[in-house]
Amino acid sequence: MDKLVSLAKRRGFVFQSSEIYGGLGSVWDYGPLGVELKKNIKERWWRSMVHERQDIEGLDAAILMHPKVWEASGHVAGFTDPLVDCKHCKNRFRADDPRIKGTPGQPDAQCPVCGSKGTLTAPRQFNLMFKTFMGPVEEQAAVIYLRPETAQGIYVNYLNVQQSSRQKIPFGIAQIGKAFRNEITPGNFIFRTREFEQMEMQFFVKPGTENEWFERWRAERMKWVEGLGIRAEKLRWHQHGKDELAHYAKDAYDIQYEFPFGWQEFEGIHNRTDFDLSNHQKYAGKKLDYLDPKTNERFVPYVVETSAGADRTTLVVLCDAYREEEVRGGEAAEDGGGEQRVVLKLKPSLAPLKAAVFPLVNKDGMPELAHRIHDDLRRHFNVFYDDGGSIGRRYRRQDEAGTPYGITIDGQSTQDQTVTVRDRDTLKQDRVAADKLVDYLTQKLAG
Ligand SMILES: [Zn+2]
């Protein structure tokens, strides 16, 4: 994992937030390559959820919502973790922290940080929502929260969306947006962060049909994840046991990936029943039922949710793509004997940079032709120009960036207007006419 974190920094995927001040705990910034990778994943999700389907609409609800939303949703009362404080060193732990020896609150309990005995308090419930104040007065009545999930923005808008788009149940609403949780034990790089981005879709169905839709969405979502190019043996389902279910869920399955730190979820499919809509109806005093135009029945819909972490999915894609390999043959020799390489074998359509353009040397008309090709290509793809260092070095840098194609302009290029295209994974080189490069790459990047 350390190797991936250091590559992420070196190549500009992910930096620690406020690094020059020593960093801010478990908050991360996406650099030039990271923002492209995450954007490609989000766009792929949006395309498959919203554009390619007629029964799902998009939404972008605000992060700040009426505080009553979080009472109705159960987050004010129930979105808590049991925590333990050390009275000596002031550190705070989850009550189930495996490093704690003994029973917190009892004299035998030992603090995992300072080692004191008997200084740990009995567990207390701690709300995970970030609280702030709206308006100029910092008083109880002005308290609002940074949303801990994007789903509620969808629920309170479901009739607005349904009526304005003239959808009929069953239909869904999809949203990508930031959410915030004041996690006490965050960690594992961008896996568990206090500010994160969700890709959530809430599918509204007639009561009694939710199990069937639940199974359909499980199948759909696994297909989408596999479409990211993730190795199948690194993926599995995990069904929540009774003690794992969130306060709103009747049934829940996670898609887990085998990270370097173990199997962990990065997407969940949840049967949320009519819990949220019924509660909003109660707390807001507004009817949220749906009138079926065919049968004239009125009902509060059930909700099947698919909830994916954009950051976690990005981490899955990065972990799965990371390889250390031995390079043999011609390229190793060009490289001056550096036979080890680190490469991100990203699916080409997800890669931040689609190609890099290299003049073999900075003379004999090669830079001029290379610049012309670069200008032409960047109207179609995100491409990179690099004329620094040996060609082997330049290949290695792009391998680490996950760039699938390297285009080299050499002595022959200035004679016959052809270039070599090097494939990141096979290291094979094709000779391609410069004016056919757009077609060539378009074909390779499909899928
Ligand atoms: Zn302590």
Tell me what the structure shows.
The protein is an alpha+beta fold and about 450 residues long. It is built from 14 helices and 23 strands. It has helices spanning about 1-10, 30-50, 65-70, 75-80, 150-155, 160-165, 210-225, 275-285, 310-320, 330-335, 365-375, 390-400, 410-415, 435-445, and strands spanning about 15, 30, 55-60, 80-85, 90-95, 125, 130-135, 145, 170-180, 195-205, 235-240, 250-260, 260-275, 290, 300, 300-310, 320-325, 340-345, 355-360, 385, 405-410, 420-425, 430-435. The protein has a seven-stranded mixed β-sheet, sandwiched between helices. It has a five-stranded mixed β-sheet with strand order 20-19-21-22-23, sandwiched between helices. A three-stranded antiparallel β-sheet has the order 5-4-6. It is globular. The two termini are about 30 Å apart. The structure holds zinc ion. Zinc ion binds near residues 88, 113 and 119.
Q: What's the number of extended β-strand segments?
A: 23
Structural class assignment: alpha+beta
Radius of gyration (CA) equals: 26 Å
> Could you give the distance between the termini?
29 Å
Mean pLDDT: 94
The stretches of 5 or more residues where confidence is low (pLDDT under 50) are: none
